[in-house]
Fold ROK family transcriptional regulator.
Amino acid sequence: MTPDRPGDAAGVRRRNLGLVLRHIAEHGPCARTEVAAATGLAHGSVTALSSDLVERGLVCEDDAQRGGGRGRPGRPLRLVPGRALSIAVQITSEELRTVVADLAGAVLWRGVVRHDCAPGTPEAMADALAAEVRRAQVSGAAPWSADAGREARRDDGGVLSDAVLARVVIAMAGPVCDDAAQTVLVAADFGWLQPVRLGELVAGRLGPGCPVDVINDGNAAALAEFHARPRPRRGLVLIEAGTGIGGGVVVDGRIHAGSHGIAGEPGHVPVAWDGPECVCGARGCLVCYAGPEAVFEAAGLGEVARREGVSAASGRLVAALETGEQAAAAAVERAGRALAAAVMSISALLDVDEIVLGGTLAQWFPWLLPSMDRTLAGRRALAPAMRLDIVPAVLGPDAMLTGAVEFARRAVLSDPSVVPPMPVRPLR
């Protein structure tokens, strides 16, 4: 998204339009006076902005009226979640996993399809992604013609029309540059060793009118975990283990991807300067101690992981931990100390409220936490008021798609101008 220029009146209006819509989405139904008080905008501005949102079909007036003041009682405003829909697609090594969701985040349709794209063929992947978006539009046909279960009438006698596709968000492994082309800088899992302008490729196949975003799947999972937790917080870091260790950083409800799209890659935080050599070229990275491959090897389960996969090996490790097997306990103790060392570096740099352990780390959490707590005890004693919670992930394998949906939803709530005004159909 292009940042607004200082003094850009259109940009100011877009921001204020988003401010009003976000408040209605989070607190509605609510009266215009309530929106004005909460946002700090003048009542006249809120009236004009809410009229714009009604014209776009994103907001409607409730039938119930609110009194309590002088003059005619006002009709409270509420979100029309079915007006603006999004499609989120997660790319895995073999599949495209897709959901259609409304502006409230409710999932309306799910689909999974194999993509059969050979390594190093981003054009083929763009073809597959565009085809899957079209399939989602057709398969989720009912929501596209619905308006949140009711028709919202306009003063001129027209009826609000169909929902629109407001956003497509693609989540995948690899650093992503937030430029106009939504460039994936490198994606070793897919054999993309040079930058790929994936967002541009997919948007070109879909045609004009729908923004396409590409986000790192670890960042998407971190965003989902941030919004899944009831306690207010400023910042969260997700450390997630699958084939290696990835994750993401969320600050004030927004993904922090850094200058080159690689912020939130805790697997390559150094925890021992003289440690084993990592595939990244450095030594002593966290993944060399707490990554699944390293833990399985230390626990004597390396061959099980190679033969049966990570999930089976993790199940065997948990069973060994439950029976107190020494090799398993030592492997997880070592991983916990390494995680604590990484957490100390992360918290010193970012000062977040919460560290979330996901993937296999969530499965091993009861055995990781004691060694982490022992290692972190000295740091916590120095500043007991600086609370840092270490918790297991709560969303599981759906976190990446859930985060992609949340990213799309918040993008539309922040800039409602991407949704065009409603066409007017004469009443029959």
Remarks:
- The chain has three domains: 10-67+74-79, 84-141+161-219+402-418, 231-393.
- Residues 263 and 416 are 28 Å apart (CA to CA).
- The first strand starts at residue 59 and ends at 61.
